[in-house]
Amino acid sequence: MRALLIDDERLARAELRRLLAAHPEVEIVGEAVNAADGIQQITALKPDLVFLDVQMPGGSGFDMLAALEEAPEVIFTTAFDQYALQAFEVNALDYLQKPIQAARMAAALQRCSLRHSRALAYATAGVPAVAPTAAKKLFIKDGERCWFVGLQDVRLFESDGNYTRVYFDDHKPLMLRSLNQLEERLDPQRFFRASRRHIVNLDYVDHVTPNDAGGLDLLLRDDLEVEVSRRRAAQFKSLASW
Amino acid sequence: MTNDRPLLARLNWYWLFQLAGWNFLPLLMLAMSPGADHTPRLYAIAAWGVVAGLLISDVWHRLLKRQIRNGVRISWKMMAVAILILGALHAGVQTIGYLVIKPMGEVHGLAWVPGVLMFWWGVYLVWNIFYMAVLSLRRANRLEQEALRLEISAKDAELRALQAQVNPHFFFNSMNSVRALIYEDQDSAAQMIDQLASVMRYALQSGQHDTVPLAAEIEAVQAYLAIEKIRFEERMRVSVEIALGLEQVRIPPMALQTLVENAVKYGVEASPTGSEIRIRAQRMDDGKIHIEIANLGAILPFANSTKVGLVNTRKRLALALGSSASLDLTENSGWVRATMTLPEAA
User: Fold this and answer.
1) Which CATH number among 3.40.50.980, 3.30.565.10, 3.40.50.300, 3.40.50.970 corresponds to the domain B164-342?
2) What is the DSSP letter of B266?
3) For residue A35, which of A70, A13, A66, A2 has the smallest C-alpha distance?
4) In this model, does residue B291 exceed pLDDT 90?
5) Is the CB of A99 less than 8 angstroms away from the CB of B270?
6) How far is B171 from chain A (nearest CA, A)?
7) Which of 3.30.300.230, 3.40.50.2300, 1.10.10.10, 3.40.50.300 would CATH assign to domain A2-124?
8) Contact A57/B270, CB-based, under 8 Å?
9) What is the DSSP code (8-state) at residue B269?
C-alpha cells in the first residue's frame, strides 16, 4: 500500500516513519504538513492510505477529506480528540492515539488492508481492465457528522440544489457536490443517471415498471422510488440486461 | 461534640421557656388579685395548673415533633383543632383540680364553663403561636446557614475546577514528540522530559494556592514554551520581557499559563506559518500592572473554547484579586492580545 503522512509536526511524522519501518508492505510516498498541502499531495500521488492528524493548521483533517473527490483509506492520528471522533458513524473509522503503540499500528494496518482489498474487489468485479487503484470511497461531512461510505453501499444520489443527498444504510446526509461532478467520477456500468435529479446504483434496483410518461419507475430495495426520464429509458434498457 | 458548643447553645431552651411560661401564668393571676386571700389551697391549684400545663403541652410538643420529623405539613386547620382540644382538655383537668382542692369552696352551677374554656383556649393559642414562631425562626436560621455553606463549597469547587486544567491534548502530543526525539537526540529528549515534568508538577500543584508570584508562573510558562518549541520548531518564536521588580507580583496560578496556551493554540497550532508568542509584563504610569500575551492571528468569532478559557481566567482573577483585576482580549493589525490588568497593590 502506498501511504501519505499528514501531520504538521516534524517529530510526529518521524515517529510515524519509524513505526511504519516495521511494515514493509507500506510504502511511504510522501509527507504533507497542512490541509492545503495534503489535498495537493493526495491529488498528485493518489495514495491508497493516508495517516491524517485530526487537528491541523489551516483546517481540520475532516474538512480536508470532505474537499477531496474521493477518499483514500484513512487512519486518523490524534493526541486527544475524543469529541471530534464522536462525530463519526462507526463505519470504517480507524484512529490511533499518540503516542502510537506498535501493536495498535499493526492492527489498524491489518483492518485497513482488509477494507482496501474488499473495496478493490468490488470496484474491479467484472471489469478486469480497470486499474486496481479504483477502490472508491466517499467521505461525507454534513454539519458536525462524518461518514466514510463505500460506493457499494450507496443506493442513490439525489440532487438538492448545490448539494447532493446520499442514500446509504439508514443515512441520507448532504454533501457539497453537484450531481454532474459526481457522475463524472462514478462507474457508469454501475451508477445510472436516471434523470436530472437522480443517479441510482443498479445493484439496488428491485423492480422496473413502465410509467405513463413513457419513462420507467425504478423501485429500489428499501422502498425508494426513482423515475427514469423517457430520454434515458432507452439507455437504461440497453445497459441493464432486463 | 455538644461540649464544644457555647453555653447559650447548650441550654435546653425548650424547658426554660416551658417553665417560665407556665409559672408566669399563675404568678400573673396572683399578682392581679392582690385583694384575694392567698391561701395554701390557692397555691395548690396554681401548682396543679402549672403541672397540668407542662404535661399537656409537652405531650403536644412531642406529637408535633414527630409529625414534623415525618415530613407532615402543619396546617392552620390542624392547629385550630389542636388548640380547641388542648384548651378543653386543660379546662377539664383544671375543673377536676377545683373539685378536688376546692380553693374557692364548692363549685356551683355551670355558668363559669364558657369563661374557663375561653381562658384556656386563649392560653393554648398563645403557647402555639410562640412555639411556631420559635420553630420558624430556627428553620430560617438553618436554611440561611445551609445556603451559606453551599455557596462556600460551590466557590471552592469552582476554584478547584478552574485550576485543574492540565491540557490533555498538549500532554499526549508532547509524549509523542518525546518518543520520536528519543531516537533522534537523546539529550534533547531527556531535557524535554524534565520540562514536561516541571509543567505537569506546576499545573497539578497550582490548586494549593490562591495566588503565586509572577516569577514562579513565568518559570512554568518558559518550560511549557520550550516543549512547544520542540513540537512546532521554526513555526513558533518566543519573546519574554518582564520589567524589573515585577517578579513578586501575585497572580492566580495558571492564569498566565492558560493565556499562553491559548496563544499557542490559535497563533501557532492552527496556522501553517505559525507565530511569535510575545509575553510582556510592565508597570503602567497609573501604577497598575499590565501582563500582555500576544500572538499573530485573529479572534475567531466561533472559538467557544477561547471564550470558556477567558471567562474562567476572568473569574479566577476576580476571585483571587478582587474586581479591580481585569482581562481583555483585543485584535489589532494582525495581533491578538490578551491583557491582564492587576491592581497596584498586588
Assistant:
1) 3.30.565.10
2) I
3) A66
4) yes
5) no
6) 8
7) 3.40.50.2300
8) yes
9) I
